[in-house]
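User: I'm writing a tutorial on reading structure tokens. Could you give me a worked example: one chain, its sequence, then its tokens, then a sentence or two explaining what the tokens reveal?
Assistant: Sure. Here is the example chain.
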Amino acid sequence: MDPSSSLNPAPPSSRRSLTPVLRALRLCLHLLMAGLLVLAAVRSGSAAGTVSAAVVGAVYAAGSLLPSVAGSQRAAAVWLGVLGASWLGLLWLTPDALWVAFPLYFLQLHLLPTRWSLPAVALTAGAAILSYVGHGAALNPGVFIGPLLGGAVAVATVLGYQALYRESERRRRLIEELIETRAELAAAERHAGTLAERERLAREIHDTLAQGLSSIQLLLRAAERALPPGSPAAGHIGRARQAAQDNLAEARRFVRALSPPDLEHGSLAAALERLCEPGAGSGGPGSPYGSHEPGAAGPRVRFSVSGTPAELPTPYEVALLRIAQSALANTVRHASASRAEITLSFMDASVTLDVVDDGKGFAPGSVRQSSEGGFGLPAMRSRAESLGGTFTVESAPGQGTAVAVSLPLPAGVPA
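And here are its predicted structure tokens:
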């Protein structure tokens, strides 16, 4: 079936139920066909005309009930051919059958692709005119204008409705994409808030409890050394120092547990390097290849570090890692690239991350966000800007894509 058909705008497997407007239009078409056939049978004044009208009605009803006609372009074409042949038989018997051409116009435009439906409408109009002339009716402009004008109105109506349907579908998809984008951004904000709270708790535990327990341990060790030999307080001080040491180890375990999972096995550079390993796409949390088709070969990814690495706050490391994952996921899913490179650069007052590929690229100003992709860019930009950074995308069709994010180094981080 023609995907642009107004009655059947999508394949049967994905087509939604008909709207009330389409049901009303279909019912009106059935009633129009039935009324015109009854008119032709009555005006024919013969049993042959009545039988021929009944045959046309039976063929029409059969096509309306058969699922194959609505689901197969070939079946629809065969049904229209049989219906047209039976209509020509009725047209041979009575000139009043020419009015049946009007519902036939709509059927042809609905069920056939444009390259077939327009010639079919023209042939139907020609047959109606020739039949009227062949039955000896007086020639007048209405004989020619009527069928031709009816065909033109049918073409304009159907093509206009198809355009409106396509615009409606475009708006519906846009609304769905906006809803999905809002949900993704809300989830990203919740995730960022969770990470920020984890970082705050880890920092508070490290700066207060852990440091306090460490100081207590040092003071107890000094007190233990200052005691005279054989002092009965030595055992109590030793037990207190051991308790402080145990609690310090427990506090450090809490700090490690509050760190992001992707960064708990090393630094940001190590996490980015693991992201570039060939096996990283086979699974695992945060893998950018998570939805890549099984067995598909991804691009070769290389990682490099520029400048002197500095220890960054956890929100910085999390943001840069997530942006790298999202950018690399876009490369794998959309760019058809053979090579990609991730560069982490430490400069005097900022840290930058660049993800560059040699894929097919796109026009950033005209890219249309879809449910299949495109929502990573707003999320990456939001992550960068939430930390006071900048996010840029440079790309052009056939020239690859470069994603760059720059974050200012916070006070206290050595340049």
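What the tokens reveal: The longest helix spans residues 141-226. The chain has eleven helices and five strands.
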